[in-house]
Write a structure and sequence with these properties.
The complex is a heterodimer.
Chain A lengths: L1 E9 L5 H10 L12 E10 L2 E9 L19 E7 L3 H18 L4 E6 L11 H9 L4 E3 L8 H12 L3
Parallel strand pairs in A: 1-3, 1-4, 4-5, 5-6
Antiparallel strand pairs in A: 2-3
Chain B lengths: L1 H13 L1 E8 L2 E5 L4 H13 L3 E2 H4 L1 H16 L4 E10 L5 E11 L2 E8 L1 H58 L7 H25 L3 H10 L4 E3 H18 L3 E4 L10 E3 L2 H18 L5 E9 L2 E7 L11 H4 L15 H12 L3 E6 L5 E8 L19 H8 L17 E5 L3 H13 L3 E5 L2 H10 L4 E5 L7 H15 L4 E6 L4 H10 L3 E4 L4 H11 L19 H8 L4 H27 L3 H16 L4 H16 L5 H25 L18
Parallel strand pairs in B: 8-10, 14-15, 14-16, 16-17, 17-18
Antiparallel strand pairs in B: 1-2, 1-6, 2-3, 4-5, 5-6, 7-9, 10-11, 11-13, 12-13
Classes of the chains: A alpha/beta, B alpha/beta.
Amino acid sequence: MIQKKICMLGSFSVGKTSLVRRVITSEFNEKYHTSIGVKVDKKIFRVGDQDVTLVLWDIYGEDAFQKMQMSYLRGMSGYFMVADGTRRQTVDVALALQQKVAEAMGAIPFVFLLNKCDLADQWEVDPDDEKNISARGLTPLRTSAKTGENVEEAFVRLALAMLPK
Amino acid sequence: MEANAIFESFLAEQGLALFEYLGKGSFRPIGSFPSWLKQIWGEETARAKTVVLAERSPFLQNFLLDAEQFWNNKSSGAANSGNWIERGVDGVETPLEASALRLDGKKILLIRNFSSAFAEQTQWLQTARDSVLDHEQLLREIQKKEILLHCIIHDLSQPLSAMRGCFNCLTIGDLPPDLKPFVETGQRESYRQEQMIRGVLEAFSGDLPAQKKSQANEPPATADLAACARHAVRNFSAAFAEKRVRLQLDPKLDVSRQWLSVGDAPRIDRIFGNFLENAMRYSPQNTTVTVGVEEKGALLAAFVDDQGPGLPTDQSTGKLFALFAKGKDRPGKAGLGLYFCKMTVERWGGRIGAETRPSGGSRFWFCLPRAPISSLASAAEPNLPAANAQEEAAQQGVASPGKRRVGKAPRSLRILVADDTEINRELAMELLKARGHSTVGVADGRQALAALENARFDVVLMDEVMPEMNGLEATRAIRQKELASGRHQVIIGLSGNATKEDEKRCIEAGEDAYLSKPFDMHKLFQIIESSAPETAGEIIVPPPTTSSDSVAAHLARSAAGSKKLMQSLAISFLADAPKRIANIQSAIAQTNAELLATTAHALKGSVAIFGAAKAVAAARNLEAMGRAGNLEGAAGEFCTLENELSGVKRELLAIGAKSGKKSRPPRPATRKKRGK
């Protein structure tokens, strides 16, 4: 069976762990529990006519309190760059981190996620921001770990991007 | 044996597991396999003599690449993996940490059970990140409040603009005498309303820290407390009369002298207003409210005495002036007014308070330091609305009332009025027509651009917030077109937003001057007529097309390549500039806004011939400050102007030197010796 390493990257409290939890166990916890350390999970996805095991590396958000080791990204086949649509600054962090990863690791498939799309009244990323993200070749996908919206779609999209054509 | 037992106990106690690397991914456990690791990887792994750890954990698989590199290259220190969470065969998650090190020449992998410290680290990291999130949320709330405040202020300003415009229009014609008091009252009250709106904006706007800082550096304003008291009595007389409460100035007050204190008249007016509103609310009919000023040692004390029930007993005096103070019998009042009074008075170094009078009723008072001697010459009762039309006319220097209230402008201008609010646009046009100007009105920035394509205008009055294209966007577009056309369009910005940041934004967009709404019509006339070009259709050379243009290059363009003209212009400027600069400096020193506007305007025009974009910008900013009557930052801007001009002068000296003529400073007048 094909096995691919995927990393969840982004600022803290954007929903990386919640997205993994949603896809692995279909659960969601409203309360924010910060991640320290790396957690690795596996999930088998059906992509087209083949099964793909995705090894999900849930990496804590880099901030003033914790620095991410780039060695965690070694061997990854793809990654999710996650931002919180209700906190505009996390988009900037994600864009900067994506550039850093691209410079260090080269052109690796990724999907840009604007998470927490269920919080429409708190949304801070306006259409112009999304256009700017798209203009950099990073077509964002709005997801919600809480409702599950587009979560499966996101993983399938990344899996397809990672598989040989 | 005993040592081994102690060693193994130590490892177990510390939650450590040691492995020796044998090569090719294989590890030998050192000592017994700890039970916590057994729970993670199972009995079978625990019983094995050697373990391929990379197969047990994807995280370790990744880290072992770093570990091997360390073992091969380094002999001291350690390579650390960072924390990771390993899920055991029983589903239990355990935090772990791995380190690669060399001991006695052996390649050792140490795996540590991080559980004991994990809880503590999680807690402080959770607290830290929750604090960051709370802080972010607080900033968002503050920002929302700021936006809401500005929207409210803007929305409040619009109808107030219309009201003031209507009152202004009413005063244009000959009013029947019985209607004049109503119009004058309406004008006064709309002015008060404007002051209240500005007070709210100042108190709650984010500009407040910057204002406080700038106010700390400014010399204090001064005001005549007795004059303010007189104004207050006059302003409130009608309202008190309606309530059948007598309002009087303290008979003991000596009105023949000045009672000069620190503070500015409009804010003191507001403090009196708050006190009088309070007195009016609690004074029974047929009682008297007295407003007065008295000496209080080094201070001057102003007071409002009423004959009402006295201070509420459910609150201390201190709490009365606190934010959101309410008495139990004051439903619906937010307690903002007295809080503003307290902030204002204390900022001036004064005190404020209230007490129940022994004879009954209450006294609300405030004390302020006396005005410094040096300020006595310029102490004023400035900018208070006139009590009657005659006084207002005297203030504004227009023809006496009873005849036409709006005098004709010295020169008729063509003015484009861009404002999306029809009533405000129509009123502005009406006022300008009464002044003798011709006007065209448009409803948005795009229409303004179109109008400018088809006709010439001396001045554009540009509202800021408009649909389709707002005022700032339109201004920028006009300035962009000027780079090719060589013609400068005078643009005066109008905005219901009234903070210094708003003003700065308008000037930075390229507007020549700025007026906040609701505006005074005479101020509108003054700004328009002093900003307009000297002659109709005057061509004013714009700033250079590129910022890297030298003075010589720009001068060459302006002089159409004529060297003789270039040299003549250079010499003329060098002779004239020192005096213009001295005039500006003098205007700033005297805090004479009007003089600053005219002198900066004059210098701007003469410097623009040489490009010198930064010098032109500095002159423009000074002119705008003068027109706005706000000289905050003028000294700094003057320094910028001087610095930029010194570069210009150097280049011009070189150009002038080529002609062989030198620009000489004007000789001081000397007495000729009489011949004997």
